[in-house]
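Per your request, structure below.
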């Protein structure tokens, strides 16, 4: 009889504990069916992955050390319209998608080129900038004038970028680097022959530094790329982001940000 009473008492206590745990957890966890976007809206903070070393898109101002750039301005404006604040997590480009996959951040704002391969794996927003690829060499290098001239030569690239893929497709000898700045240094040191990168970024670098040791050897007109924000699949971000980017194009805000950084509209 005593064993039965103890068993009943133990069962009752366990039930009370489980109900209490369930009640305490329920207030902090998101509701069933909420998307990651819904949770971001509730928390009020959008975590953004970016390099912070890729001017004029994402970099630190030399005077204030504040993170700034075209991509930073655009993502901040989108977040403002969505009613949330931005929190930036800086990481190297070749680690960017690994960070997104691990949910270290909600979105990548770093000139993510829109292509079919990425669209299979991720949700990509409407484009907010367009540009062309260029080949950069040392000023006295006259052997590289077209994409075909990259075959077999040493080319410095971030391995996971669209520009890296262009160099791979040209059968170049790829030397892995963290970003554009390192690529240009290796060119000037004579350790590599060239790099393929974004025309706007290269022109900005030349403008800001006055570097006369490098040149744009070729512009790849067929390699025009559009950049968008990247999210994990089915997290609920694409639709609201697309809505705000479209609205920013229609009301002239996106063009205004573009002209601030480039002196022209690079959004179409």
């Amino acid at each position: 009889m005593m064993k039965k009473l103890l068993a009943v008492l133990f069962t009752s206590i366990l039930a009370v504990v489980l109900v209490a745990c369930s009640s305490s957890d329920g207030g902090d966890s998101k509701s069933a069916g909420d998307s990651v976007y819904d949770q971001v809206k509730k928390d009020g903070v959008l975590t953004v992955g970016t390099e912070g070393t890729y001017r004029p898109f994402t970099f630190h101002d030399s005077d204030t050390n504040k993170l700034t750039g075209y991509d930073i301005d655009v993502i901040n404006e989108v977040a403002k319209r969505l009613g949330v604040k931005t929190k930036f997590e800086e990481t190297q480009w070749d680690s960017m998608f690994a960070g997104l996959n691990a949910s270290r951040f909600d979105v990548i704002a770093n000139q993510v080129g829109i292509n079919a391969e990425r669209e299979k794996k991720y949700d990509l927003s409407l484009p907010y900038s367009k540009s062309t690829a260029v080949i950069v060499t040392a000023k006295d290098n006259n052997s590289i004038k077209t994409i075909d001239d990259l075959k077999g030569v040493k080319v410095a690239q971030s391995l996971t970028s669209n520009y890296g893929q262009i160099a791979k497709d040209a059968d170049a000898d790829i030397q892995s680097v963290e970003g554009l700045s390192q690529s240009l240094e290796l060119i000037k040191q004579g350790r590599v022959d060239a790099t393929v990168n974004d025309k706007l970024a290269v022109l900005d670098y030349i403008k800001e530094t006055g570097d006369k040791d490098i040149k744009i050897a070729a512009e790849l007109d067929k390699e025009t790329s559009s950049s968008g924000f990247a999210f994990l699949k089915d997290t609920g971000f694409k639709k609201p982001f697309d809505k705000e980017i479209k609205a920013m194009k229609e009301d002239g805000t996106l063009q205004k940000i573009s002209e601030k950084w480039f002196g022209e509209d690079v959004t179409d």
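The chain has two domains: 36-130+226-262, 131-225.

Regards,
D.
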